[in-house]
Design a protein that fits this description.
By secondary structure, this protein is of the alpha+beta class. It is built from 14 helices and 18 strands. The protein has a six-stranded mixed beta sheet with strand order 1-2-6-3-7-17, sandwiched between helices. The protein is globular. The chain binds ligand BES and manganese (II) ion (2 copies). The site of one manganese (II) ion has 5 residues, from loops.
Length: about 450
């Protein structure tokens, strides 16, 4: 019988093939046309757990289905809930992909496909680590429950109700999520903070059709002009948000935390180079890491209105719109911020324009405690697999369910990501480094041992 490590090494090629199979399913949660793909992905995942001897089911929700699985119970052993998401973001612009988004392709040690790192590749590390235990030891050292959802990228709208209704079934000692990154290649991290988010869709309507901008311009309020004015009123040139009360509940960084961020090996030049920009702007008095991890922000995510074709067309558009969002830090209340944004925009709306503001999703920022034995167990497992102790970081992205796990299951989350900042998540040419994939499987296998030994 091979050891766990040997098994993981021997199966490397097969693990990659399995990941490719899941990556070929275009499970884009926000697009209604992919409903069937969502069901296929959930069924694929449930089937993989069933073949391990787990109790596995596909659970329908008002939105996309959840794949749920549970290992054969071991009385007295701790229980870990693994969370992941099989849904992915849209792939546009398609022409910027070097290989098609749903035809996984290996290039220079990476696997390229939508969902490779976010989150299919990362979530599968926790499936294959369980398989390694079962195939070599016959059993796991912990009880494992897997909650793999299909709505993370649209704000997890069905999960609150699901967690409330199934709190007993999901009861656990801690939650494990791999849906983020290392600090740098080969420098793994344990993440203890995530930002929250509020996301809006704004539609401004002026005249009931597009008009000649010469005949009507100057008399008729232009929705595109108004949109530009409104959006620029929300934020100043350095990124300070101007919504009244926006900063009232912000938890400030402690001097100790700032000191710890400053000690991380962050190379600004390399960072700029990686994203192809010549400089950055941001809130005065904060470093790049502080701005990304611990300060709230405003970003336009999409913007339209008027003529988009080639050449010029003198038109006063009837409508203009934008998608925009605020990233929030712990203690800011998404509902309170949303209400303040709504009131501010209403106050900025000139005669001749009607405003329609839709709120897509909101979730609060979170901080998870670092002092627990679970965190120490994760640190040992990561050091074992990566040959290096993890650093402790925060992240700028959001995983809405982390707050809900704390609230409804009274469980804290271990955020141990295997990705890299240059994985192109939500962008063309998303990739997952294959060495990170295999190290992730090893770290996960070791984590079950470390948690089981408590
Ligand atoms: N995996 C990301 C969140 C993330 C990004 C964590 C970077 C750590 C580092 C997740 O899939 C994601 O994209 N979340 C959305 C949530 C939103 C749609 C509610 C996000 O952050 O935009
Ligand atoms: Mn993700
Ligand atoms: Mn994502």
């Amino acid at each position: 019988m091979p050891t766990i490590e040997e098994y993981i090494n021997n199966q490397a090629e097969w693990f990659e093939q399995e990941l490719c199979e899941l990556l070929r399913i275009p499970s884009i949660s926000t697009l209604p046309a992919h409903r069937g793909d969502m069901a296929r992905a959930a069924a694929w995942i449930a089937e993989r757990f069933r073949s391990l001897g787990f109790a596995a089911e596909v659970i329908e929700t008002p939105g996309h289905p959840i794949a749920y699985a549970q290992s054969p119970p071991i009385p007295g052993a701790p229980t870990v809930l693994v969370y992941g998401h099989y849904d992915v973001q849209p792939v546009e612009p398609l022409d910027l992909w070097q290989s098609p988004p749903f035809e996984p392709t290996r290039r220079d040690g990476n696997l390229y496909a939508r969902g490779a790192t976010d989150d299919k590749g990362q979530l599968l590390t926790h499936l294959f680590s369980a398989r390694a235990w079962i195939e070599t030891q016959g059993a796991l050292p912990v009880n494992l429950k897997y909650l793999i959802e299909g709505e993370e990228e649209i704000g997890s709208p069905s999960l609150d109700a699901f967690l409330s209704a199934n709190a007993e079934k999901l009861a656990c000692d801690c939650v494990v999520i791999s849906d983020g990154g290392q600090f740098a290649p080969g420098l793994p991290a344990i993440t203890y903070g995530l930002r929250g988010i509020v996301y809006f869709d704004l539609l401004l309507t002026g005249p009931d059709r597009d008009l000649h901008s010469g005949t009507f311009g100057g008399a008729v309020t232009n929705p595109a002009n108004t949109l530009a004015k409104m959006l620029s009123a929300l934020v100043d040139a350095r990124g300070k948000v101007r919504v009244p009360g926006f900063y009232a509940d912000v938890v400030r960084l402690t001097p100790r935390e700032r000191d710890q961020f400053a000690r991380l090996p962050f190379d600004e030049k390399q960072y700029l180079q990686q994203i192809g920009v010549s400089g950055t702007t941001g809130e005065k008095g904060y470093t790049i890491l502080e701005r990304r991890w611990a300060r709230p922000t405003f970003d336009v995510n999409g913007l339209w209105g008027g003529y988009q074709g080639k050449g010029a067309k003198t038109v006063l558009p009837g409508q203009a719109g934008a998608k925009f969002s605020f990233r929030l830090v712990p203690n800011q209340d998404p509902a309170k911020i949303a209400a303040a944004v709504r009131a501010m925009l209403a106050g900025l709306c000139p005669p001749g324009i009607t405003i329609e503001l839709v709120e897509h999703h909101g979730s609060p920022g979170v901080l998870v405690p670092l002092g627990s034995p679970y965190v120490r167990a994760a640190a040992r497992a990561i050091e074992h697999a990566f040959g290096r102790a993890p650093v402790y970081t925060r992240e700028g992205g959001s995983i809405p369910v982390v707050g809900t796990f704390h609230e409804k299951l009274r469980a804290d989350t271990l955020l141990i990501g295997w990705g890299q900042d240059d994985d192109n998540t939500h962008s063309p040419n998303e990739k997952f480094n294959l060495a990170d994939f295999h190290r992730g499987i090893r770290a996960s296998a070791r984590l079950w041992q470390e948690l089981g030994r408590r």
